[in-house]
Write a structure and sequence with these properties.
about 575 residues; five-stranded antiparallel β-sheet; five-stranded mixed β-sheet; 13 helices; about 50% helix; elongated
Length: about 575
């Protein structure tokens, strides 16, 4: 972490240096551009002044000079004394003197000397008037022009101030010979040069302002860049700090994971998509006898040998390969091998390892259940023995109840009293209902539950066979569900009581198509049991809670044992409904 932060700081300092150097170079280039621009402006001004002066001279030359009034500042040019008609007098008596281009240019130059405007000077190396004598710079410029240069420009100092000085040659034309033929000039020759001096003081002030503005702009951009770099540094530093924290957390998590995997009581191994072992925890080493180095890189079949499984030796049947192929979790009991060749029974869970929706391998965890299987076999044998014993008990109870039912039937026939006969008949029916339940339990594979449809069919079929009064059709509609023995015992006695009462009291000899319908259905956790007939219904003022009502108190007590509720009424006959939760 410290090394990475040090490297980031070093890179940040390097970026600051590069940024500062880049801005310095850009500022220097901008400074040069401003300075050169000032020179270009001065050169343009000088060229404009030269062009203007040259136009004046051409105009003067084209007219052969101009006449101006003689004054103190403009006296006849002594160097034109050889020119005919140098001085003339007008009809009004006004004295005029000839002013050639050189004289005109010299007067303009003298007027500009006392100001800071652009100054021009006509000069030559062959002089008539010593006023036109070239200075040091002009001598150098004339030499360049005579050497073939079209113009000469440079910065020079005049009276302690900087000027941009510019000179171009002026060429002898036909009009020049009027005054200068005596000097031996010919048309087309260089007579001299016109120098233009542009003061740089004002331009330097403008240049300084532009330099200051450019400097402030570059400083601002440089400062903004430093701020961006500072923000970037802080963000990168924060990201690296967070990354380091996450790295530490990840390392802690990996250590915790390793500790957990090492401390768990289950053997855990990881395999890749080809089924090759890539991870084992210490428990695997303890159970199998293999070391970690012996297992890594080997196929998992070294531990899970298909030839040791009950389903055969086909590798396609291996639950680990199936998990890798379809990505489904599997929990099974398998046989694993040890290094010494012995085998152990294990409970094993295979879970797929997925990445981006694709199975990359699987995690296999298992533990030894050899002792559990032995205990399971012992319990299974014990349960088989108990089941045999219970079947024998139910068989004997059923036989005893049938014997009791037979005794009650014999006693009923020998009673000689209708009231006694009815009481014994009801007792016989109730005993037979319990006997049929034990018979169903005896025949059932599960000794704790009984199929309702099978039991009620036997119960109602027995009641059909023992019917001795009016023939009644008994119909049944029972869902094929199973209930505990205690619940079915109560339900059987309730149905026996209700159907018996309907047979005895609901119909007369004149009743057409007497019918009793029994139904049993479930709605979620609620069981609904209904007995309905098409007889004469309950009498007026019928009270189910009365102990004197058709022997129904036993039904009420049985409903209470079920923790249920009962309702009854008349609707084309009597109906009685019992509901309870399972």
């Amino acid at each position: 972490m410290r090394e990475e932060i040090r490297r980031v700081r070093l890179y940040s300092v390097l970026l600051v240096c590069i940024w500062t150097g880049l801005m310095a170079v850009l500022w220097f280039l901008q400074f040069l551009e401003i300075h050169n621009s000032t020179k270009r402006i001065a050169a343009i001004m000088a060229e404009s002044a030269f062009t203007k002066d040259e136009l004046y001279r051409r105009w003067n030359t084209s007219h052969g000079g101009v006449y101006v009034p003689v004054s103190e500042s403009t006296k006849p040019n002594p160097y034109l004394s050889h020119v005919q008609d140098r001085d003339i007098i007008t009809d009004s008596g006004k004295k005029l003197t000839l002013m050639n281009p050189a004289y005109m240019s010299r007067q303009v130059f003298e007027m500009a000397q006392d100001t800071d405007v652009i100054q021009t000077h006509l000069t030559s190396d062959i002089l008539i008037n010593p006023v036109n004598k070239p200075d040091t710079w002009e001598k150098l410029a004339l030499a360049k022009l005579y050497g073939g240069a079209q113009e000469y420009v440079s910065v020079d100092s005049i009276n302690g101030e900087e000027y941009l000085r510019f000179m171009r040659p002026f060429i002898t034309v036909e009009g020049c010979l009027k005054c200068h033929a005596v000097q031996g000039y010919k048309v087309g020759e260089i007579r001299g040069g016109i120098s233009v001096s542009v003061p740089l003081t004002r331009l330097a002030f403008i240049e300084n302002n532009e330099v200051i503005l450019a400097s402030l702009t570059h400083v601002f951009i440089w400062a903004v860049g430093l701020m961006v770099l500072a923000v970037g540094y802080r963000r990168i530093y924060g990201m690296m700090y967070e990354l380091a924290e996450n790295k530490d957390k990840l390392q802690d998590m990996n250590e915790q994971k390793t500790t957990i995997l090492s401390s768990t009581g289950e053997a855990i191994l990881g395999v890749d998509s080809a089924g090759v072992i890539v991870f084992v925890n210490p428990v695997v080493e303890q159970i199998t006898g293999y070391s970690r180095e012996e297992l890594l890189g080997r196929p998992h079949s070294v531990l899970h040998r298909m030839d040791k499984q009950e389903e055969g030796s086909d590798e396609s049947g291996c639950f680990v390969y199936q998990t890798i192929q379809d990505g489904e979790r599997r929990k099974e009991e398998q046989v694993f091998s040890r290094k010494d060749g012995t085998c152990i029974n294990v409970a094993v869970l295979a879970a797929p390892i997925k990445k981006a929706g694709r199975v990359q391998g699987a995690v296999v965890s298992y533990y030894d259940i050899t002792e559990q299987i032995k205990n399971r076999e012992t319990i299974k044998r014990s349960l088989n023995e108990k089941e045999i014993l219970l079947k024998e008990i139910h068989h004997r109870v059923k036989n005893n109840l049938q014997i009791i039912s037979s005794f009650l039937s014999l006693q009923k026939e020998a009673s000689g009293s209708k009231e006694t006969e009815d009481a014994l008949g009801e007792a016989e029916s109730r005993v037979m209902a319990m006997a049929l339940l034990h018979q169903s339990l005896y025949r059932s594979e599960d000794m704790s539950v009984v199929r309702l449809d099978t039991y009620f069919h036997s119960l109602l079929d027995n009641m059909r066979k023992n019917m001795k009064c009016i023939p009644v059709e008994i119909k049944e509609d029972v869902e094929p569900v199973s209930l505990m023995i205690d619940t079915i015992m109560c339900c059987g006695l309730i149905v026996n009581e209700l159907v018996t009462n309907s047979i005895k009291y609901a119909f007369t000899a004149e009743s057409e198509s007497p019918e009793i319908v029994f139904s049993f259905r479930t709605e979620g956790e609620l069981c609904i049991m209904t007995v309905r007939d098409n007889g004469r219904g309950y009498p007026e003022g019928f009270d189910i809670n009365s102990l004197e009502t058709l022997g129904l108190p036993i039904v009420v007590n049985l409903v209470k044992q079920l923790g249920g509720e009962h309702t009854c009424g008349n609707d084309g006959g009597a109906w009685f409904r019992v509901s309870f939760k399972i």
